[in-house]
Amino acid sequence: MALPRILVLVLAGGAGGRLELLTEQRAKPAVPFGGVYRLIDFPLSNCQHSQLADVWVSVQFHPTSLSDHLANGRPWDLDRTTGGLMMLPPFQGTDRGGWVTGTADSLWRQADLIREFAADALVVVSSDAVYKLDYRDVVETHLGSGAEVTMVTTEVAEDDASRYGIVELGDGDSVAGYAYKPDQPATTTATNEVFVFTPGPTLDRLEALNDDAGEDGLEDLGSRLLPDQTRDGAARAYPLQGYWRDVGTVPAYWQAHRDFLSAEPPIDLDDRDWPVHTRGGRHSAARIMAGAVVDESLVSGGTRVAGEVRGSVLSPGVVVEQGATVVDSVLLPGVRVRAGATVTRAVLDDRVEIGKGASVGGDGEITLVGRQARIDPGTEVLAGARVPDTDPED
Asked: Which CATH superfamily is domain 287-387 in?
């Protein structure tokens, strides 16, 4: 029996506005995570370990930041003569061309290419969450169910449920109800933005919905498509067993890093059977200087620590000078914290410099400092502040 033909579409085109300064100059999937990774490394590594080699990435905002990272797809075994990685930028020239206005709209605009590929199953995933999942197992379950869509689900906190598509389960794995970002969620079972579609019926349905959509268009998958499939009894659920965290907001991004500081992190990023791959440069070993203190932290190669670091994540090239203190923070590549400075509960973007004796953040909301910003010596940046790039031409 022939293996099913499977196509993966990674939706990487969103503006990522909820990540604020972190996505002003980069695509959301290109945002660094865990020191050496980017957010898109997680779905691409899932594809590799699921042995899915036909992967299309839909891009839109700041595409260069993502293209530079993906290159030819080699870290994820996608640099192939036939199949492999393909980028799908916005285009003009047909009635499907133009700026993408949502995830369902993106699917509709690529419908002709998807039909031509003639897949048995279409896996559609976002790239703003941290998790591990065998997509092929979801596909096999989907194909055996006869469903038009299988939604991968996870449990979320009750006070956070209104941010997601919420599922009500029926008998077995059937989906009895679906609501997209409801004000009053009926359950805490949420879709985790991984869907397996049967392409033909789904694309036919999209065409009909698009004809009726009017000026609003198709918008997101949860706006029209998924509710329509659910009403027709064509939706099934696949519960994710294990860790999943959406990192689409600054507090969630910060908290996800906290999750990985324990002695037993929720995902072993170096698991020999399921490592997370990335395209990274070459960095020397981290240097911890005499008198330095490093406690419960992730320290990447190429860093130099002479001060005190607690409960934090240091990306490649970070320097924490003698007498400086970094607590409960995430420092992206090239950040420098000068002598006597303190950084607390903050996220510092690429190449930020904290001047001598300056104080950034504190108890309370997460402080965010934009790329290449310079905090003058002795300056106090209060908790929860947003400091934009102060010298974008550097």
From this structure: Hexapeptide repeat proteins (2.160.10.10)
The residue ranges of DSSP E strands in 183-303, in sequence order, are 189-197, 235-239, 244-246, 287-288, 293-295, 298-299
In terms of phi and psi (left: phi > 0; alpha: psi -120 to 50; beta: otherwise), the region of 392 is alpha
The closest alpha carbon to 189, from 244, 116, 133, belongs to: 244
Tokens describing residue 92 = 């003009």
Pairing of strands 359-361, 380-381: parallel
pLDDT in tens, 10-35: 998 777 688 999 999 898 999 999 99
pLDDT digits (tens, 9 = 90+) for 82-139: 889 998 887 766 777 677 778 898 899 899 999 999 999 999 999 989 999 999 999 9
Which CATH number applies to 6-259?
3.90.550.10
Return residue ranges of the chain for CATH 3.90.550.10.
6-259
Domain with CATH 2.160.10.10 in the chain: 287-387
Over its C-alpha atoms, the chain yields an Rg (Å, rounded) of 22
Longest dimension (CA), the chain: 70
Distance CA 124, CA 148 (A): 13
Structure-block tokens of residue 357? 């004796």
Amino acid letter, residue 283 = H
Ramachandran assignment for 326, one of left (phi > 0), alpha (psi -120 to 50 degrees), beta (any other): beta
Q: Which residues in 166-193 are b (16+ Cβ under 10 Å) and which e?
A: bbbbeeebbbeebbbeeeebebbbbbbb
